[in-house]
Design goal:
By secondary structure, the chain is mainly beta. Helices cover about 10% and strands about 30% of the residues. The protein has one domain. Strands 2-3-6-7-5-4 form a 6-stranded mixed β-sheet. Strands 8-11-12-1-13 form a 5-stranded mixed β-sheet. Strands 9-10 form a two-stranded antiparallel sheet.
Length: about 210
């Protein structure tokens, strides 16, 4: 198994005195792009996006990462990405608090442009999703060479992955390298990192035995 660690990246409010989940709504019901579409870089964006935070207990916001499903990050987060040559698209978004105390700094909807098939099938233990009618394996919509996994009990990662922040195709979640994690821990607040190690498993439908 590859000894290099990768991490699921998510929001962690406890690290910056914020709620466990920041509830809010955008001024549009959907975005003009699909967040997992590799061609999102080419999408013409015409709207001006706003995100209204609904939690009245939040008097001020000092956080660099809101995570899924909001996908909002700070300018400082983008600077860490730039330092590691992460490929992304950043769509400006205006954040509004119910207390009329605007957050400090600029914020963006973050779209990673790198996608990586991280799982090394040899050394992993998993089950593939099957089409109910044909029984054939189901493949990822945007990456038709990568199968969809029902569950992963042991996730062995590939070697020589060059990207530091990307969408892990098997999980369809944001993942980072050890190098990104170290820089983020030194410069950012509001992030958590779950290692993809021997203890990690993926069981979205509760089917793993």
């Amino acid at each position: 198994m590859n000894t290099e660690l990768f991490y699921l990246v998510d929001y962690d409010g406890s690290s910056c005195e914020q709620p466990e989940f920041i509830s809010g709504v955008f001024n549009y019901d959907d975005w003009e792009w699909d967040e997992f579409d590799p061609s999102a870089e080419q999408v013409m964006i015409n709207r001006e996006y706003k995100f209204n935070i609904l939690d009245r207990s939040i008097k001020s916001l000092c956080v660099d990462f809101l995570g899924s499903p909001h996908n909002i990050v700070s300018k400082r987060f983008l600077e860490v990405c730039d330092g590691l040559n992460v490929s992304y698209r950043a769509v400006p978004v205006e954040l509004n608090l119910t207390q009329n105390n605007p957050p400090r700094g600029d914020y963006f909807i973050f779209i990673p442009l790198d996608s990586v098939a991280l799982l090394e099938q040899s050394g992993s233990e998993y089950a593939l999703e099957s089409d109910l009618s044909s029984g054939e394996p189901v493949f990822n919509r945007y990456h038709p060479e990568v199968p969809v996994y029902s569950w992963i009990k042991i996730f062995a990662t590939k070697k020589n992955v060059q990207q530091d922040f990307f969408v892990c195709i098997e999980l369809m979640k944001w993942v980072c390298s050890e190098g990104f994690k170290k820089r983020a821990e030194n410069n950012l607040v509001g992030l958590s990192f779950k290692p993809i190690d021997i203890e990690f498993s993926f069981d979205p439908w509760g089917e793993m035995s």
